[in-house]
Write a structure and sequence with these properties.
Order of helices and strands of chain B: HHHEEHHHHHHHHHHH
Distance between the termini of chain A: 48 Å
Radius of gyration of chain A: 31 Å
Strand content of chain B: under 5%
Number of domains of chain A: 2
Structural class of chain A: mainly alpha
Helix content of chain B: over 70%
Strand content of chain A: 5-15%
CATH topology of chain B: MetI-like fold
Radius of gyration of chain B: 29 Å
Number of strands of chain A: 6
Structural class of chain B: mainly alpha
Number of strands of chain B: 2
Oligomer: heterodimer
Order of helices and strands of chain A: HEHHHHHEEHHEEEHHHHHHHHH
Shape of chain B: flat
CATH architecture of chain B: Orthogonal Bundle
Number of helices of chain A: 17
CATH superfamily of chain B: MetI-like
């Protein structure tokens, strides 16, 4: 091979290495960008008058006089629509039967779509479900619903090999020649006046309970649940992990037993998280009867077991990194072994240990599989601290799964899903950032 | 503070020496303390034995009730039918398939990144890249799953074929260019100097046109694929690959770092370029460490639950042909997570125990992987040390 070729190969090789790192960073950005951008949208969005009405009626938030004036002005803007529908219904009564049936079904569909956009029509009985009591609270959802009012969805099966094709037929054409025809252009032009969109900061998203299975309200029970689970897991795992690390580094002599212990720890680190969940169910709940069924404490125990190896390893590493001279100096001054560990080695190793603890905290907060069978429910009230012993809780991680896959109207609560992901990911990233900064500081101190 | 009075009060006894009783008391206290430490340590490590015991205890009833044969050889998975069938072969294949896909994504990228980190980038750049890897590892699995389900799956369903077609070009074109260049160079190594440039250009031209045509054909064919469902094995494989990346990168970087400076310097002194040094000297020396990294990556991918549960499509079928990643699959972890909710009410039935049987398989597999990787690391450490 010529030297030139070898050089080119060398360059290409270095380039592919750098490229792989750039790809990795790009993957991270692509992953996090939608979560952050759309996640912020759960808190800061364009809200409609329905949102302000909800806030006023449920929480007594906002300026009552102002909101009531807005509701009134929205009502006035909506009035022509309802009047036209009433007119059309009278017109319908005068038609022959076939026409009446055709128009009647269409009208029902239109009214249903309109209800989900604007809330119940004047004169309706107050609906049972909260999602039917209010119109769309968010401008982006309102536009989707407006399209449902303006266009009828129809599946076209005329080309069999391509399967069904979704078509949007304007309703205006359906009602051509009737008094209802003019309603659709009116709706399209005056939707702004009807629902009064305005930039809204709904920071209470983080501190409100959810209503009507997450259609409205915030995610406080989930945040609190994750907090309990994580803190519980750390309270259990930190003492055990620290003691194990101290024993392994300072007391244990190299032996068969130590090898066995180490193998056990690394095996524990390799156990799949779902197996931890099954073990928690089989052991903590079914055998030890920690609680009747799922509970926060059972979930915390399972999570504690899961993060234990991480804590042991990080603490071990931190303790080993303390220079031997520290310990020797302490021992030569007459300190006992335990005394030296407690007053000299642990304080010196503390930043490293803390880094490990913070990282495993992030892991415990984000992990879902271990709590599926041991602690998580999809809807619940925020728990008081003593209830954690007996009651299951919603949690950020579990509810992301639940709302994204098992919720009855996945598309309608998309913003809540993004909000949950945003909160969870920022929580975990903040913890990790803290750990990274702390580690950098320790490294700098060690170097000087 | 040891005041002077204290010394006086202890009479004629030398103050620094402990009395025999004190000594004994100290020794007993130390023994008790150490015993306590050992007890707590073994408690936390014995947990793993507990896990094995309790998973196995609930798994064996299944094998007693239904036997081994159907579970491992049939792919008919109808646990809730009145004539329940528990053929988990398709589920094993699904787990294997997404793990394989993840490894195909993670290993080349991860090893290339590790080489770059240990041998190419300067120290300051490394300090920036390390946190990226850490954050990639820290993002919760459910967030990855959410991304796969909500962002990636619709994208694949709508534009999957086109994206794959572009990817073929992006990956294929540079590789083909380098390969053609090298082949042309090597092929003309032996011919007389006079003809060499001319011959080389001819070969370059012919091979270049051929490979361009090949790429265009492949890109078009793949670009025309229609992906029926965005939640499929490919989606999950890509995401699992990204999730396994941090493990692969950090473990193989450790392995590369463990190869001493002397080997590198020796190779450079013999006139090798950096690429040649890495390929011919460092990678062979670090081979076992990289194998360990691959094994750990496999463990990470096969044990992952949320991503596969959310985005793999959960269809208990073997894809046709078996390597078709564009079809939905179902994995062991997703089956455990998804079926336990229903099976929990019928504790004690085969339907409940079969999930523990799956968990036992996972557990045994990851245990074996762990032992293997540890053994490999230990052996290579001995070899490098000695």
């Amino acid at each position: 091979m010529r030297l030139e070729t070898r050089k080119i190969l060398d360059r290409a090789f270095a380039g592919s290495g750098v490229l792989s790192i750039i790809l990795m960073a790009a993957a991270l950005v692509i992953l996090l960008a939608p979560m952050f951008i759309r996640g912020v949208g759960a808190i800061f969005f364009t809200g409609t008058v329905e949102h302000r009405r909800l806030m006023l009626e449920k929480f007594d938030r906002g300026d009552r006089a102002l909101v009531e004036a807005e509701i009134e002005s929205a009502r006035q803007a909506r009035e022509p629509v309802y009047k036209a529908i009433a007119d059309f219904e009278r017109e319908l009564a005068g038609m022959d039967r076939a026409k009446r049936a055709a128009y009647g079904k269409n009208l029902k569909d239109t009214q249903k779509a309109l209800r989900s956009l604007l809330g119940p029509a004047p004169g309706d009985i107050r609906p049972m479900l909260m999602r039917d009591q209010y119109g769309q609270t968010r401008w982006d959802r309102a536009q989707v619903k407006l399209a449902r009012v303006l266009y009828r969805e129809e599946w076209d099966y005329s080309v069999p090999e391509r399967g069904g094709i979704l078509m949007h037929k304007p309703r205006k054409a359906d009602f051509a020649g009737t008094s209802l025809e003019a309603v659709f252009p009116y709706l399209e032009q005056n939707i702004g006046k009807m629902i009064l969109p305005r930039r809204t900061l709904y920071w209470q998203f983080l501190t409100d309970e959810s209503f009507d299975s997450h259609f409205f309200g915030g995610i406080w029970p989930e945040i609190l649940g994750t907090f309990y689970l994580t803190i519980g897991a750390m309270l259990l795992a930190i003492p055990m992990g620290l003691i194990a690390a101290i024993y392994l580094t300072e007391y244990a002599r190299e032996s068969r037993l130590l090898d066995l212990l180490r193998t056990c720890i690394s095996t524990l680190a390799g156990v799949p998280s779902i197996v931890f969940g099954l073990f928690g169910l089989a052991f903590f709940i079914n055998t030890m009867k920690v609680s009747q069924s799922k509970s926060v404490i059972a979930g915390s125990m399972t999570l504690a077991l899961m993060v234990l190896p991480t804590i042991i390893r990080a603490s071990e590493e931190a303790i080993r990194a303390v220079p031997k001279t520290y310990k020797e100096a302490a021992l030569s001054l007459g300190a006992g072994r335990w005394h030296a560990v407690w007053t000299i080695i642990l304080p010196a190793a503390l930043p490293g240990i803390l880094t490990g603890i913070v990282i495993s905290m992030g892991r415990a907060a984000g992990e879902t599989a271990p709590i599926i069978f041991t602690a998580a429910v999809s809807v619940g009230k925020p728990l008081a601290i003593w209830q954690t012993l007996t009651q299951p809780t919603p949690a950020l991680s579990w509810n992301i799964y639940n709302l994204a896959t098992e919720h009855e109207a996945v598309d309608e609560v998309r913003h809540v899903q993004y909000g949950l992901v945003f909160v969870l990911v920022s929580l975990v990233l903040l913890l990790n950032l803290f750990a990274i900064i702390m580690r950098a500081r320790v490294a700098r101190r060690m170097r000087t | 503070m040891m005041g002077p009075e204290k010394i006086e009060s202890s009479g004629e006894k030398p103050s620094l020496l402990l009395s025999r009783a004190d000594q004994r008391r100290h020794r007993i206290a130390a023994a008790i303390g150490q015993g306590f430490l050992l007890a707590v340590t073994s408690l936390s490590t014995l947990a793993v034995l507990f896990i094995f015991y309790f998973i196995a205890r609930d798994a064996f009833p299944f094998f007693r009730l239904e036997g081994f044969r159907e579970f491992f050889t049939s792919s008919r998975w109808y646990p809730s039918a009145s004539e329940a069938e528990f053929g988990a072969l398709a589920i094993f294949v699904g787990s294997g398939l997404v793990t394989l896909g993840a490894i195909i994504v993670a290993v080349p990228l991860g090893v290339a990144a590790a080489i770059c980190l240990s041998d190419i980038l300067p120290f300051s750049a490394r300090q920036i890249v390390k946190p990226v890897i850490e954050i990639l590892a820290a993002v919760p699995s459910v967030a990855y799953g959410f991304f796969a389900l909500v962002v990636l799956a619709p994208l694949m369903q709508e534009k999957g074929g086109q994206i794959l077609g572009v990817a073929v070009w992006l990956i294929g074109a540079p590789l083909a260019a380098i390969a053609v260049y090298v082949v042309a160079d090597v092929a003309t190594d032996r011919c007389p100097d006079r003809m060499r440039p001319c011959l080389r250009w001819c070969i370059l031209l012919v091979l270049g046109v051929l490979s361009l045509a090949g790429l265009a054909f492949a890109g078009n064919a793949i670009g025309g694929w229609k992906i029926n469902s965005g939640t499929n094995a490919l989606n999950v494989s890509v995401i699992l690959g990204i999730m396994a990346l941090p493990t692969v990168v950090s473990v193989s970087e450790d392995a590369l770092q463990a190869v001493g400076r002397e080997l590198r310097e020796g190779s450079y002194a013999l006139g090798a370029t950096r690429a040649e040094t890495i390929f011919k000297t460092i990678l062979p020396a670090a081979r076992s460490g990289i194998l360990a990294a691959v094994i750990l990556g496999v463990m990470r991918a096969i044990g992952e639950t949320m991503v596969v549960w959310m985005a793999s499509g959960n269809a208990a079928q073997i894809p046709t042909p078996w390597y078709n990643l564009l079809q939905p699959v179902r994995t062991l972890t997703a089956t455990i997570a998804g079926d336990m909710g229903e099976a929990d009410h019928v504790t004690g039935s085969a339907r409940y125990h079969v999930l523990f049987a799956m968990a036992l398989c996972l557990l045994v597999f990851s245990f074996l992987c762990n032992l293997a990787s540890e053994w490999i690391v230990q052996r290579s450490r001995k070899k490098l040390g000695g």
